[in-house]
Specification:
By secondary structure, the chain is mainly alpha-helical. It has eight helices and six strands, in the order ββββββαααααααα.
């Protein structure tokens, strides 16, 4: 056994450094045949396939929890605690940026709605819309802000409500992990990515925050797969939802008044993925 290192006694081997499963012998009875080396299949006695008839399986003779030292070092404890630390534990939860983005989107809609009366007298609501909406010649005319501002416009109160609900569900988790400034950069770059691809494929960009939200959702998936910061089942649920929206968007485009900015969604998700992959772990 190795010389004990500093730290607390290993709770698994109680400081002995010996594997409790095999008591240091290096093998345990085969669980498939209970150590007999044979098993009965349809009334016939056959050699156990798991252990090839030996009745044993290899087992480390040293305690795997402490590598045979009998003690667990502070460094090892920290590694294990981090590995099994529940999501959002040990980080400062934040939703300030998410709240601000929602307030901005709601305020823009209230001042320049398309389906309800505006809080502003005519023609100011139309002027706000004209300044923010995408145009076919915005690249040649140098109106580059129009590759971002359509993400703050919404066609109806239902459009706004769905997007803001999705942002409120996804945003705070990503904001807490990335921090306020990186989260804001993720959101804005995803919005730009969505508007750029949408404008390229559709001549003009669609409107709404969904491209940016797709970028936030893509960040959830990357944070789970790359660093394990977010539970896999949650990331899988987000991924499946994105795929369903994209499939429905492309398959039902234009049918029954069903219109989604599919390319804007893809552009936002791509930008969010690239940004999250590029940053260093927090």
């Amino acid at each position: 056994m190795k010389e004990p290192q500093e730290g607390q006694l290993c709770p698994r081997c109680e400081g002995s450094g010996v594997c409790r499963d095999c008591q240091g012998t290096g093998h345990i009875p085969c669980p498939a045949c209970s150590g007999k080396g044979t098993s009965v299949w349809h009334g016939k006695k056959m050699t156990c396939r798991t252990c090839s008839g030996s009745g044993q399986q290899d087992c480390p003779s040293q305690c795997p929890s402490c590598a045979g030292t009998g003690r667990i070092s502070p460094e090892f404890q920290e590694t294990i605690q981090r590995k099994y630390q529940p999501a959002l534990t040990g980080i400062k939860t934040s939703n300030a940026v998410t709240k601000t983005l929602i307030v901005i989107c709601v305020a823009v809609y209230a001042l320049a709605p398309r389906d309800l009366p505006s809080l502003l007298p005519y023609p100011y609501s139309s002027l706000i819309w004209d300044i923010l909406v995408s145009k076919a010649n915005m690249l040649t005319s140098g109106e580059y802000w129009r590759f971002l501002t359509p993400a703050f416009l919404h066609a109806s109160i239902w459009h706004l409500g769905c997007n803001m609900y999705a942002l409120w569900v996804l945003g705070p988790t990503v904001e807490s992990y990335l921090g306020k400034w990186r989260y804001l950069a993720l959101y804005l770059l995803s919005a730009i990515g969505g508007c750029v691809l949408s404008a390229h494929m559709n001549m003009i960009s669609g409107i709404g925050a969904s491209g940016a939200i797709f970028g936030v959702a893509a960040s959830v998936i990357v944070l789970s797969n790359k660093w394990g910061l977010i539970p896999q089942h949650y990331a899988n649920s987000v991924r499946n939802t994105l795929l369903i929206i994209l499939v429905l968007g492309f398959s039902m485009d234009g049918a029954f008044g069903f219109n989604l900015d599919n390319w804007g969604h893809i552009g936002g998700a791509a930008a969010g993925t690239i940004f999250t992959l590029a940053i260093k772990r927090i």
